[in-house]
Amino acid sequence: MGRRRVSCGHSGSPETSTDVETRVLVINTGGTIGMVLHDGVLSPEYNALVKTLRKLPILHDEKYAEQTKLYECYKPEEKTLVLPKSKLDKRVVYTFLEYSPLLDSSNMTPNDWTTIGKDIEKYYEDYDGFVVLHGTDTMAYTVSALSFMCENLGKPVIFTGSQIPIFEMRSDGRDNLLGALLIAGQFAIPEVCLYFHHKLYRGNRVTKVDSGSFKAFASPNLPPLASSEVDIKIDWDSVWRPSTTGKFTVYTHMNHNVGLLRLFPGITTDTVKVFLSASMEGVILETYGSGNAPDNRADLLDEIRKATERGLIMVNCTQCLRGTVTISYATGQALSKAGVVAGFDMTPEAALSKLSYVLAKQDLSLEEKKRNMSRNLRGEMVADLEGAKFSLSDSRFIQIIAKTLSIGCKEELEAIRDAIMPILVCAAAKNGDTEALEAIRNMATDLSKADYDGRTPLHIAACEGNLNVVEYLLSKGVTIFTKDRFGDKPLRNAVQLRHKDVVELLRKHGAHLSRAELQDTGTELCRLAASGDLEGLQIWKLAGADMAMTGYDKKTPVEVAKANERKEVEDFLNAA
Question: pTM for the complete prediction?
């Protein structure tokens, strides 16, 4: 993943470096990680974090920045830094966007969620990934909300922070920020995640469990998506893949008339009645055990029933840290009969933000909204997960290979699968064989996995112009933003090989050319204009390239077309 570095020289001509770069936008909302001690009190200070990071070699390679004239290519220069080269031979260039004022997370509101979402949407096409710095106290709410607000997400959005300010000697902030940057810049994980203390979690699965430990967060009902130890290991089988894809958007119209009501022994009917007032449109009911409430309190159940009958959506979530809501007990069935929707194993933070998101969907009926609360929208619950996980006994093909090679242990069998499956999937994509792809997918194989050259099945299908395979892969949630080892995404492959229908389909689903991919495009457009290659120019325009980009000699394509008397090309470029 990434593009080879093209740096800006003083003469304006490009200078090529052997390093490969990816770009990450860091949105600093505030929080402990960037706080400074003033008069014995910690508070956020604008621009202090960037100044400190510039002095830390593990978080900024000043020598590389000077050699490649980094500050001339990325503006504003005082906010752009670059990591040392990683084990994967990548350079993560990261630029800060700092809010003013910076916030303590206790002061965060849904309006701040909207601001974060809009900024991600605004800069979505300019960066390979996003890191959001946020205070830990309400981070679980914000990361859960953003997971629902970000629709058709194809790039990593990773929240992180720290328990101790990054300026202090024993801060956990340096490791947290470094890990988040490396994952956001090197791995195509199309989720809103949270990275803390060497673990990457699905954002809508976390909750804060400790205010005095570096292990501040836990994901009680879902193992981490990745662990950062000697190496960064991604559990690709657990990465969320939506069943449909489309252009990335951020849905910002959250419904604020929602709340959390925690049951406790002896809770009065009047308390429940007041809470379920007419102004409330949705309530997360935190119940006992596996979703139980007293079934000998007819007055209490009657108030709940009245509320659901008038259209208030109530979702049943357990007060337990682990486990799921069921209706195995009579006390749980009583709530179900009163119209309360099961929240299965959602955290209260995820359930609340999901309810706020779903209620805001004006095009959905009340029943559709209730059904959505029991559906798995972003991997936040286990309610209706489709497909079985990979099982060695289910894969006859792998068993035959293992028997032939006399390999028996589970680890070696899984190593065979991980080595062979990407090659098989890419071969099926090349041949246009969607039936084979479906058979392989049923083994719970990730169709986004890359082969030895870093190329995914979507890369192969785009190169071959196999539109049916591209359509199939997109329908299975394959990411369109993975880059091969040359730094190219499937869209660029389709452009280079002039598969117009594939370009159109990828663009429809939100594919775009990154700034890095467009760095040398001006010269290519001028070459096409000089030769009168109208078809080539049309493909680049369809892919979203700016037809006014200049070449190495600072001339635009239309100027080149005019100088070479390419009238048809000149007319096209003028119209573009």
Answer: 0.78
